[in-house]
From TrEMBL:
Keywords: Carbohydrate metabolism, Glycosidase, Hydrolase, Polysaccharide degradation, Xylan degradation. SUPFAM superfamilies: Arabinanase/levansucrase/invertase. GO terms for biological process: xylan catabolic process. It comes from Pontibacter diazotrophicus. Belongs to the glycosyl hydrolase 43 family. This is Beta-xylosidase. GO terms for molecular function: hydrolase activity, hydrolyzing O-glycosyl compounds. The keyword Signal does not apply. PANTHER family: ENDO-1,4-BETA-XYLANASE, PUTATIVE (AFU_ORTHOLOGUE AFUA_2G04480)-RELATED.
Length: 751
């Protein structure tokens, strides 16, 4: 992906050198002179006169595909004003029908380039449907446009067009760059032949960009003899930088550099991705009017993109906290565009609904914004303390879009009327409501919450699973603190499997914690799931640092159990005896007494305690008025019917009696709340006042996400109440949540 950037002229010896530098980077041949705004022209080595665009680049076009289903393998567009925050165009639907342009019915890995004339655009994609197999394609698609809206296309089948390709297995991830020496567009891509690893090749496109006019030649192969795929070339400081993914002996993104575009690449033998997770599809672009470059890549096993920033293309810093997208891209590229071009794209594929749904004020709970497109009503949940009498939602206005009113408004008296006008479309009017709701209580995706009141600090803490990772693949734990159950502070990562745990490096799930005091000293014992085993870590403070014991506490089925998983620990201190217990299990429930050291199980005490067939996982235990309450989750966390039931016992390890009406909390379809489960219980210190802390599907999108709802969950708190006979009154889950509590200096315990 190549981009035209306004560059200071004085860095070069003369205008001709200035222009050539621009051409070498594969960008528009002529730029506006920043000193006077004068338009300049030059001749490329091919003898073709090139002319500068009349305005600078002020926005960004992101082209991408979204997944491995055939309907996801298509070209999609998104826009950004700043290169960090992107909004999908066309409601995240394809802008080009894959069946119309490809031989397989699907396309992947789109790369977009502005031509050397500044007004022609070139796009290349992999012609492939992944369902046919990863070694099933032999072709790419070449596309050309003069307006970014209307595209012509041609299929180029390497095996059919060129001889000697009988053992060709696949053609992947093509990209285009302008070669000023040849005066042609060079397409580079990876190919795999027979048993050889994937290597990067190049060939030149013909004048009409409808076919390859030269036989593919090898451009680069990995010196480690691993695969080299997903090449991306950018020119900087007189050198071509080839970013590529290597596989085989190690895996990740590396860079090779050369003084020449088509040969001589020397490997810089270090990985530049800033994650230990598998990555692919690197894309590099320079920010408009800046010396900063963005390296982005697809963290494909986690279902997310990571953005990093660099000035030297050597050292990269993660900037994920600055990036937002209302879509989940796969391998794509970014092209700076003008205001006029952005307005044209908005006029074709932008919608007023998306504009009104783009609010980005810092006081918003952004993942919970709800838009009723039929009723033209928008709900904006705000964080505690936001001044709703003068609140500006900060809607994103792309070129060609106007939003009125633009200033802060008073939302305390009811909905505010907004009008959105997208150039070339009819205006739309919306009723916008902003309200302070306390659920979810944590910002972002989290699940399986365990709650603690710390005597040492006088604060509440929630210890959740870090969610939002495909297939529950998170690898770290955080904690959050509050002094009123409403305002929660992110205390950061307290245990990272990759850094802090030697015996497991995956599936960080469902922790629990207990505070123990000996004399004047406090200790915190943190039980957690990793790789379907249960470990324990210890700290002197509720926010850590936690030190792992060095081995799993539980890594095998209890006697008599042959199915399920060793997950979801729950720790409980019996207020009657002072003994401590650990409970766990998925598909079964087991319990055991802990030794006094709190990091080992007392031999001979393990007991299978599964209450009934509704038990799935997530046991939690509390004590009230002489009765032990056992709560657990029923069904699958991916199900909208995930819910909590309970039973009672007279002892911590005794037989659990299951009442006939034992539902604690379940979905509320009218409120749009689904998947309510895996909870913990909090008693207010010194009071018969109780709260249930649980997770639910993300609101409002969760119910539309299929199985993905089960790993895009959020944490909520509601009141838990008892009937006069001691039975638990069924909880109605709410968006409002609970009011702030005032401890007034009282101590308390987590039960």
């Amino acid at each position: 992906m190549r981009y035209s950037i306004l560059t200071k002229r004085h860095r070069y010896q003369n205008t001709t050198d200035y222009i050539k530098r621009c051409l070498f980077s594969g960008v528009v041949s002529c730029l506006l002179l920043s000193s006077c705004g004068q338009q300049i022209t030059s001749s490329a080595s091919s003898g073709t006169e090139e002319k500068a665009p009349e305005e600078a680049y002020s926005a960004y076009l992101f082209t991408y595909f979204t997944g491995n289903n055939k309907d996801e393998e298509a070209i999609r567009f998104a826009l950004s004003n700043d290169g960090y925050n992107y909004r999908a165009l066309n409601n995240n639907k394809p802008v080009i029908n894959s069946a119309d342009i490809s031989s397989t019915g699907g396309v992947r890995d789109p790369h977009i380039l502005r031509g050397a004339d500044g007004k022609t655009f070139y796009m290349v994609v992999t012609d492939m449907v992944s369902a046919n197999g990863w070694s099933s394609n032999r072709a790419m698609v070449l596309l050309k446009s003069t307006d970014l809206v209307n595209w012509t296309s041609s299929v180029v089948n390497i095996q059919q067009q060129f001889s000697g390709q009988e053992d060709l297995l696949r053609v992947w991830a093509p990209q285009t760059i302008y070669d000023p020496e040849a005066g042609k567009y060079m397409i580079y891509f990876s190919m795999k032949h027979g048993e050889d690893p994937d290597k990067i090749y190049y060939a030149y496109a013909n004048k009409d960009f409808t076919a390859l006019e030269t036989t593919p030649k090898q451009l680069f192969f990995s010196p480690t003899n691993g695969a080299a795929i997903d090449g991306d070339i950018i020119h900087k400081d007189g050198k071509y930088h080839l970013f590529f993914k290597t596989e085989g002996e190690g895996s990740g993104i590396k860079i090779a550099t050369s003084d020449k575009l088509t040969e001589g690449y020397v490997l810089q033998d270090k990985y530049v991705q800033q994650t230990k997770d598998p990555v692919e599809g690197s894309g590099v672009f320079k920010l408009n009017n800046s010396d900063d470059y963005i390296l982005m890549y697809d963290v494909y096993t986690k279902g997310k993109y990571q953005f990093t920033k660099s000035r030297d293309l050597q050292n990269f810093t993660i900037i994920d906290q600055e990036v937002s997208m209302n879509f989940h891209p796969r391998h794509g590229t970014v092209l700076p565009v003008t205001a006029e071009e952005a307005a044209r794209l908005m006029g074709k594929w932008g919608t007023a609904d998306d504009v009104i749904g783009s609010a980005r004020a810092s006081g918003l709970k952004k993942i919970n914004i709800t838009l009723d497109t039929a009723a033209k009503q928008l709900y904006l949940p705000v964080k505690p303390g936001v001044n709703l009498s003068a609140f500006d939602p900060e809607f994103t206005a792309f070129p060609g879009v106007t939003i009125a009113p633009q200033s802060a408004q008073d939302f305390t008296s009811g909905p505010v009327t907004y009008t959105v006008n997208v150039k070339g479309q009819e205006p739309h009017t919306y009723q916008v409501t902003a309200r302070e709701d306390h659920n979810p209580v944590l910002e972002g995706f989290y699940a399986d919450p365990d709650v603690l009141y710390s005597e040492k600090t006088g604060k509440f803490y929630i210890y959740p699973t870090s969610d939002g990772f495909t297939g529950w693949s998170g690898t770290y734990f955080k904690t959050f603190s509050s002094d009123n159950l409403v305002d929660w502070k992110d205390e950061g990562v307290i245990l990272d499997l990759h850094k802090d745990v030697s015996w497991a490096d995956r599936n960080a799930w469902a922790p629990c914690i207990i505070e123990k005091k000996t004399g004047d000293q406090y200790k915190y014992f943190y039980y957690f799931t990793a790789a379907q085993k249960i470990g324990v870590a210890v700290a002197d403070n509720p926010t850590g640092p936690f030190v792992d014991s060095g081995k799993p506490l539980i890594d095998a089925f209890p006697e008599g159990v042959t199915g399920g998983q060793q997950i979801d620990p729950e720790v409980f201190a019996d207020p009657k005896t002072g003994k401590n217990y650990l409970y766990w299990g998925n598909g079964y429930m087991a319990g055991a007494e802990l030794n006094e050291d709190m990091v080992s199980i007392k031999p001979g005490t393990t007991k299978v305690m599964t209450p009934d067939a509704t038990f799935r996982e997530g046991a939690t235990v509390s004590y009230r008025n002489g009765t032990y309450y056992f709560l657990w989750s029923e069904d699958d966390t991916r199900s909208e019917n995930y819910r909590v039931r309970y039973g009672t016992s007279s002892t911590p390890m005794g037989k659990i009696i299951v009442p006939e009406n034992n539902l604690v909390i379940a979905k509320d379809k009218e409120a749009g709340i689904y998947g309510t489960g895996h909870n913990s219980i909090l008693q207010m210190p010194g009071k018969d006042e109780w709260y249930i802390v649980y997770h639910r599907f993300n609101y409002p999108k969760g119910i539309t996400m299929g199985d993905a709802a089960g790993y895009n969950r959020e944490v909520s708190i509601d009141k838990l109440e008892f009937n006069t006979d001691g039975s638990i009154r069924q909880v109605t889950p709410t968006h409002q949540g609970v009011k702030a509590v005032d401890l007034k200096g009282n101590g308390g315990n987590r039960l």
